[in-house]
Structures are given as structure tokens and as C-alpha cells.
Here is the input.
Amino acid sequence: MEKKIPDKVIHRLTLYHSILLECIKNSEETVTSSFIANLLKIDDSQVRKDIANLYSSGKCRVGYAVEDLKTSIEKTLGFTKPKNAFIVGAGNLGMALAKYDNFANYGLKVLALFDNDPLKIGNIINQREVFHVSKLPELAKELNVEMIILTVPGPYAQEVVDFLKNSQIKYIWNFSPAVLKVGEDIEVWNENLMGNFLQFSYKFSN
Amino acid sequence: MEKKIPDKVIHRLTLYHSILLECIKNSEETVTSSFIANLLKIDDSQVRKDIANLYSSGKCRVGYAVEDLKTSIEKTLGFTKPKNAFIVGAGNLGMALAKYDNFANYGLKVLALFDNDPLKIGNIINQREVFHVSKLPELAKELNVEMIILTVPGPYAQEVVDFLKNSQIKYIWNFSPAVLKVGEDIEVWNENLMGNFLQFSYKFSN
DNA sequence: TAGATTGTTAATCGATTAACAATC
DNA sequence: TAGATTGTTAATCGATTAACAATC
Here is the structure.
């Protein structure tokens, strides 16, 4: 990847991607910047500018070729490089995510789950085994895993992170509500469902 | 609510709130802007500016009173006005969310689930019954519900939205990957898990 | 007092929107 | 050709950061 594209642009590219999938379902071959802009309630020149970051280009009077644009976004977003991950926390959310087969379509492979509840160890969820957390560092090495999807309850999240400090885990997709303290070598992406709900409900209150 | 606080500020306020919960757990009575800023890797003057939107104020040399600040954020974010919601889609994710009791702490009450699978109708999940989707408009009226949490698979999402067009549902918290087409009278908040994953994995790729 | 921290203004930076020539 | 759409530059807008006086 040559130049870093800003966060916000990447976010919009993921939305354009969803729209393109829809276009393909409807057998549309081309799409215009203003079509996309209208759906997302943004400016059409922004759509064109975002697309200028890719290696695709449009045609005057017809717009962009749907398939081309989709492929181009996928290349930029990294669909092409599959990533392995573990789910830590085999509770409701962890199990739901383990059953979410759609991950694979986006290059994310969940290889196993981890928990500290003896009753859950050994269970198989959607063909993935649940191991005790203590085994994680070892298995991460063996299976070449650098990312965990963290779905333990808030109060345990930091504990897990501390335990993994010297493992080879580098990326944490954090579904717990906790703000994690991590060292320089670990990157966190916060999903923060409750926070998002509050933002949503504030936005549309009076 | 007098003045609208920008989206981004609200987002950060939700993060400050999580941090304050942590402070309370550790029996800390005050917190400084730079403490919060360091945790979130942002500028300390931004923290102070965000807080200036609230009715709280800090003390020179000591910082902010944790309890006060927490209450003030909660007032602004609307914890105080509970909201009713239905979950539409009693699949893995829908059931996981139905079991997530933490919602209640943030003013969100899930009253029931809906699905179109006859095998699921009548099931009880964490004390909430699963009804057939066709009953939704009627029950929404009866129970005074204006929000749905949409957890059906992508291809069905638009269908559900179209069906609810003339119901009293006004807010959709969309967990499906679909970009929804809605009228002026319905507000959508997209959770878009796969999109977020892609953004995350782009951000930290080389 | 000296030092630490807030609250706020001004400066900088980046993102969005508007405008329009080029093109098919 | 006339009309529609892209690609791109310039103008606007908003958000972040820096700086610092006021305060305890």
C-alpha cells in the first residue's frame, strides 16, 4: 500500500462496497457518483474524490463499472490478504460471532474460541473448539494468529489483555465496553456497542 | 437539549464515560484532562473543550470530580430517558443481544423479539417472547415502541424495512451489512460490523 | 510562593462542498 | 449537437492542536 488513505475515506469505501453488492444483485452494470451519494446522504463530489484514491476510473455520461469498482475497493481494503483470529470469550456474543460465517467472505478466519469456564472448554461451536485461555499464547504461535476478537464481559477485558502482553497477539477487536490499556505494540479497535447506542439515541433525540 | 453537540464530541463523551466507570471502580475521586487524553491518545485540550459542552466544570490543580462528571455526561447522553425496542431477527446475533443485560443500564429496554421462522415463534429468550414479524406493527403500537434492532441477514433487511414503512417504528439500529433505503421519517444507525473490521484491518496493515 | 491544571482564544490542519472545464 | 457525468481545483467549513492567562 503506497499512500495511507484517511480513516473516514476508508469507512465510506466500505459503504460503497455494500452498495455495489446490492447493484450486482440487481444486475446493474454501472453506477453514478450521485446514485451512491443519494443513498448515503452525502455529496456526490465526495464520492468521486474518494474513488480517486483507487485505481478505478469512471466514464463520463455513464458512471463507474460496478464490477471494476467493487474489485478495486476490495483490493484497497485488503480482502485479498486473509487474516486469522481467535475469539476470546465464549459467551453469547462470542458464540454468535463464531457462527457468523460471513466473516470468511471478508478475509477473516476464526480458528478457535477461548474461555476460562471449565464447562465450556472442549465444546465445538460451528466447527471451532473452545480452549482454556491459558492455551492461547501457545496456539497463537502454532497457528500463526495475531488478532483476537475480545468478547469477554467488561470487567475481565483488561485482565485478558494483560495476560496476552507477551504473546504474539498484536491486534484486538474489542467488543467489551472497557477502554483498554495496552502497550505500544498492540493495536485496538473498539466496537463499543453501548457507546454507539448512546450516540445514536442522542443524535435523534429532539 | 438546547444546543446540538457534534457527533464526534458525543462519541468521545461515551468513551470518557467508560473511563469514569473505571475510575469509580478504582475509588478515584478526581480525574484530569490529561489522564483521559493519554488513555485515548488524544489531545488534552480537546478533552477540556468537550467537557465544556456539559454543565460540569473542573478545578484548577485537581481536575474534575469523577462522580459529577459521570452524572453530567449521563444527563447529556440521555441515560435518563429509557427507550423501548424490539429485536428483529432471532438468529445468533439477535439472541446474543437479547441476552445482553447491560442494555438496561444504558436506558435501553428490549421488550420482545421477532422472526419469520415458525420454529422460533413462541420461544422465550431471556424472558422475552419471539413473535412473528407480522405482529410487529400492532405490538409496537400497544407497547409504545419506536426502535428496532435489526439483526436479520443482509438480504432480508430491506424487506423488513419496507414492511415497517407505515408502522410507528422511527429508529433502526441496523446490524445487517445492508445499506437501507428508508423514507424521511425513519432514522438509521448502521453498526456495519464487517465494514468496521475492514477499516480496522486496513488501518493496521503495513 | 511555585506548580499544576483548567478554560478559552487563536492558529493550524484537514475534510467537505461548490464550481466548472473536459469528455463521451 | 446537447446533455450528463467525471475529475479536479478552489472555497468553505469544521475540528484539532497550541498557547497561555487565570486560578487554586
In short: The longest strand of chain A covers residues 108-115. Chain A has a mean pLDDT of 93. Residues 6, 8-9, 42-43, 45-46, 49, 59-62 of chain A lie near DNA strand C (CB under 10 Å from a C1').
